[in-house]
Automatic annotation (TrEMBL):
SUPFAM superfamilies: Glyoxalase/Bleomycin resistance protein/Dihydroxybiphenyl dioxygenase (SSF54593). InterPro entries: Glyas_Bleomycin-R_OHBP_Dase, Glyas_Fos-R_dOase_dom, VOC_core. Residues 2-113 form the VOC domain. It holds the Pfam family Glyoxalase. Transmembrane segments: none annotated. This is VOC family protein. Signal peptide: none annotated.
Length: 126
């Protein structure tokens, strides 16, 4: 089994499209006002947005996008006008992360983990 797509809810898909294009995702399906799909520039995963009447309550969705050039990417996005809740920070789980929210409040984490993503020192044996 392989995870190939994540979909997040949005009250305004067009507004969300602009946000995710700034992040650097490539728009491949635009079915306004209800749906949009992007492809990630690295790998085969896709990411989509679907229109909802009401957003989920509580913490909502967390989406992680990995980039080797985390600090440079965050600086680029700040120049594009995006506001971060957390600038790049080294975490105790050996990832470097920056956090922001999309227009609908979905948590977006830009990070770099390298080999620690799948092989942290505390990884369980098979």
């Amino acid at each position: 089994m392989n995870l190939n797509q994540v979909t997040v809810p949005s009250k305004n898909v067009a507004t969300s499209i602009a946000f995710y294009k700034k992040l650097g995702l490539h728009l491949i399906v635009e079915a306004l006002p209800h749906y949009a799909r992007f492809e990630c520039l690295d790998g085969d995963a896709t990411f989509s947005i679907h229109e909802v009447e009401e957003l989920p309550k509580g913490d909502g969705v967390y989406v992680y996008f990995e980039t080797k050039q985390l600090d440079q990417e965050v600086n680029r996005l700040i120049k594009e006008g995006l506001e971060f809740d957390q600038l790049p920070t080294d975490q105790r789980w050996l990832w470097r992360e920056a956090r922001l929210k999309d227009p609908d409040g979905n948590q977006i984490i830009l990070y770099f983990a390298g080999d620690n993503r799948k092989n942290p020192p505390w990884r369980l044996e098979r």
